[in-house]
Amino acid sequence: MEHQHESNKENHAAHDMSNMQHGTNPAMGHAGHNHHAMMIADFKKRFYVVLILTIPIMLLSEMIQHWLNIHISFPGSKYVLLALSSIVFFYGGWPFLKGLVDELKAKNPGMMFLIGFAITVAYIYSVAIVFGLAGMDFFWELTTLIGIMLLGHWIEMKSVAGASKELELLVQLMPADAHMVMPNMVHDVKTDTLKEKDIILVKPGEKVAADGIILEGESYLNESMLTGESKPVQKVKGDKVIAGAINGNGSIKVTVSHASKDSYLSQVIKLVDDAQKSKSKTQLLADTAAKWLTIIAIVAGIGTFLYWYLTGQSLAFAMERMVTVIVICCPHALGLAVPLVVAKSTALSAKNGLLIKNRTAFENARKITTIVFDKTGTLTVGKFEVSKIVSLQKELNENEIIRLASALEQKSEHPIATGILQKVKDLSISIPATENFNAITGKGVEAAVEGKKILVVSPGYLKENNLAIPEGFTANDTETVVFVIVNNQLAGYIALSDEIRPESAEAIKTLKENHIKSILLTGDNNKVAKSVSDTLGMDSFIAEVLPHQKLEKIKDLQSKGEFVAMTGDGVNDAPALAIADVGIAVGSGSDIAAETAGIVLVNSNPKDIVSLILFGKATYRKMIQNLIWATGYNVIALPLAAGVLYKQGILLSPAAGAVLMTVSTVVVAINASFLKVKK
Known about the structure:
alpha+beta, Calcium-transporting ATPase, cytoplasmic transduction domain A, Calcium-transporting ATPase, cytoplasmic domain N, 3 domains, 22 strands, 52% helix, elongated, disordered N terminus
């Protein structure tokens, strides 16, 4: 039934509003956006037509004439009034009448059904009076009611469009055209025609048209709209670039990695759209409440009518009360309370480098009591850098030690090898060739270089082969050391360290202030783990853990009643991310395929994790505020509409009811728009 409801609803005239309520995002994609803009224009036009017709209708209405103490009457004036009111009812009320039919067909009465029902009752009753039924007609009330409803919808749809504007901005980040480099010329093509291996030119100040690798040139790129990283990032030959980033003042040629539909930005847009459509528990709660409000509206409306009519009031009075109750009860504000916050928060998060894949995980961020951090690449930079080179032989200087070591490491992908090769590059040393290369499992590598037998090994190798660790050997707790052996003689050692991110300490401190425990979980040795944990002031650490054991550690914490968030790089941490209450994949950059995590942080910045939790709390607060406002308003307005204070002289007209309903919805929309990400 729900599915059928969705497809019917696509045709609703008034319906991006209701779409928002039922979780389809109106501002998604180009076609969706045009449709939304057309609907806003349609409501605006209908409103102005009704506004112009309201003046003659008011002047021809008996009650208004009575109030203004004027008398306008001519032969057939009541038929002119009927004709003008019929235009208002059928043209102005059309979106609501169509909505009424659609919701009935879908067996899912909601807001459109209520408004459609109220205006139809008022119209049929008034027509009966023109043709002889005793009583006062309802034409001026009907006209003002439809006018205010149209105005309310128009304002509201503009608010909703605003809530999804951040997503629109993401869509617009993708440039429409790209400069494709052909063998003898540069040719402009549409971005969506680019394929893998194409080469594009990105001129200074332009947006990068596709994900790729820099082939030539270097520049600073501003990726802040995609990653939340505010400062421009230097990119040189061989570096990855992402579509939508803004190029600085250098020209670059880029080899395209994949078609635009697979680009990082397209994946982000799809993720945001999916997250806005997915419903969390809070959303389902609001949907249920809106359903009940519809039932209450119908029951209360009919009950009000019967009460007043059976206690001797006129038919007109009883009808007016019923119409007012039904209008006031429209569950509009309630239906929008959560989706508006969802649309705003998901798109805002994406702009700040927090990608929400699972709404429930995001809303649960407010419950986190313990965060488990993976060390490398999250709390530390994840890059081993050479911190010192020590020679133990007079004839070999430090540059020679690292030159020989680099020969053996040039074929390795290991972070230690990368660190050594980077140092050689910084020192502009050329790397010699090797022969008879061999890896010593878990201990190091060996090869012949320039006729000498060279080994680059771990401290464990020295112990096993009874080689004495040199006197004066020092390495601090965060350093990893490799020894260089030349022709069976210990020649020197190289210490590398993975430096702690400057933002880590601040992030841990903020977590402490928010009473959230931080635990380090790492495969690294005890010494390094203790040093990092102590330096950052973390609550505790668990070291020398293999990937499959991480899962067990998370379960242990959960069994002690902790609500656990796990942050990891998404590859070896997948099982732990999946079992944690909230899985946060970090540093996935352009690879959003961290399938198991509910949330992906584009940068590996630990401060983003804190932002995420605080933003999750702020989002939840906004939802609750909206729900309280939307239900509270009904609790107060409904009895007034039913005429509880009639004897005290307080009575709401249908138009006043419509104004209250509109104001309530606009308050909800404005409240949602104040949501911000605190960095």
